[in-house]
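pipeline/complex-builder :: batch 7 item 3
reading input block
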Amino acid sequence: MRRPRRRDARYGRSVPELPEVETVRRGLAPWLDGRVVTDAWGDPSPKFVAASELIDHALGAVHRRGKYLLVDASHDGRPRELVIHLGMTGQLGADLDPDGPHTRAWWRMDDGTTLVFRDVRQFGRVSVVDAGDHAGLPTLAALGPEPFDPAFTGAALHRALAASRLRVKTHLLSQRPVAGVGNIYADEALWRAGVNPAARRVGPARAEALRDAIVDVLALGIANGGTTLRDYRGVDGSAGRNQSTLDCYGRTGQACNRCGDTLRHRVLDGRGTTWCPTCQSH
DNA sequence: GGCTGGCCCTGTACGC
DNA sequence: TGCGTACAGGGCCAGC
């Protein structure tokens, strides 16, 4: 008989969520803005092959929308956009090996530097589109408000959650109520707000608390340079520091930092979920 | 139109 | 020691 596998932080992967992508964006922006791509390569897979379309494009500002990186580009006056999703194991950097086994794309700049996209598990994606044309990226096209946008209020979150019968955590991960929340920060925010991840209805007061918790955990993540449990690295190769602040994610079997009860784990709509049965009873 | 579940993909941990 | 299997999960898509 198989023993149940331990579920602790050693098994977690640090998936790039909003704080990690924002940290990458801040590293890329001063480097890429004003550069011209002189050569490029993309893995033949449909997920990455578009990378080579960026040859001879001038690059501009680097934006972030949810977990997507958007790099302004132009060619012969035609405004275009490089869209990168890091997936689960995607890394961008200048110090990565362009010939490495998990390199999926690279772009050589006119100053001799090379931006490399490494993605071991190939859940990431690279697209080159006309600026603002996100029709081929349905999740990006349907993203909810940015969490730091003034429009993202408790009332707005309550309305969004009330419009669906999805479990609250599943709904958050869909990116529709708010952009950028992934598994780690969803668990953390729900724990902070005392909301059961399996709940299908969240009242106005709890939605307000959840909104505040989402903003707080994401802001803390950004301030700490992201969460690194295994894969995530910033553009300069440095690890994030946010993992030491986690109260819930990856702490299955440990005592809740608020009530002392034992944190539990379950699979919710296919996603591993850690929660406190006492603090998050409903 | 909304929801559910399966698929993609590979490194790692663990059982045998 | 080595092999086989389960597991991690964001986004997409088919089916209901």
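note: Confidence is low (pLDDT under 50) at residues 1-13 of chain A.
queue -> next item
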